[in-house]
Amino acid sequence: PIGGVPEFFITGLSGGFGYNRAINLPRADQVYNFPLVAGISDSSKLGGVNGNPPTNTQALQALGTTIAPPQLGSYRLPAGIKFTTYEILKSQAMLVVQFGSDFMIGLLGVSGLQLPDEKNPYVGAQMAFTVTYRASTGLLALEAVLTPNSYVLSPDCRLTGGMAFYIWSKNLPDGASAGEFVLTLGGYNTRF
Predict the structure, then answer these.
(1) Strand partners, 170
(2) Selection from 39, 42, 30 nearest residue 94 by Cα
């Protein structure tokens, strides 16, 4: 533990630097499995072995070319944080800034709780979120969704739902215009 106030008690930090590779951030419903977020708590998600941090080669192999495709002139700075709020809400998040061929900033993470406690929970709620801005498209996007770790009384009784807010700050050739936005929230059928 690093410390802080009860509202924001830091329990871990991580960071890195990447060059000549872009980064493809996941949709909100995939954040809890994304190696750069999951790796904050579990180094094996980033290629670490026996609880040890991964080497650069192991981390790059874990990310693969789908998450971190080669792209000359692209640089990124990720920073991760793990923290608790009143020892009830447990959160981990990653901020990534990508620059060079395109400027992108993204914040993604998960926050969750189990009540009344982690040993005998009746309620589990975990929210995954992404906030991204990409200069090339002028799109600011915020998404949040309940993960499969959300339930009431039993893990078999799942909670679902999510929200999204997109706003465009520039006109694009595909028809999106500056100032246009969309907001949606609710629980959706998996076929939608």
Answers:
(1) none
(2) 39
Q: How is the chain split among helix, strand and coil, in percent rounded to 5?
A: 15, 50, 35
Neighbours of 149 (CB within 10 A): 17
pLDDT at 12 over 80: yes
Determine contact, residues 94/80, Cβ cutoff 8 Å: yes
CA atoms within 13 A on the CB side of 162: 21
Nearest to 114 by CA among 139, 136, 87: 87
At 55-86, the pLDDT tens digits run 888 888 888 888 889 999 999 999 989 999 98
Task: Output the six-digit token pair for 2.
Answer: 């690093």
What is the C-alpha to C-alpha distance for residues 99 and 167, in angstroms, rounded to an integer?
21
**Would you give the end-to-end CA distance of the chain in angstroms?**
42
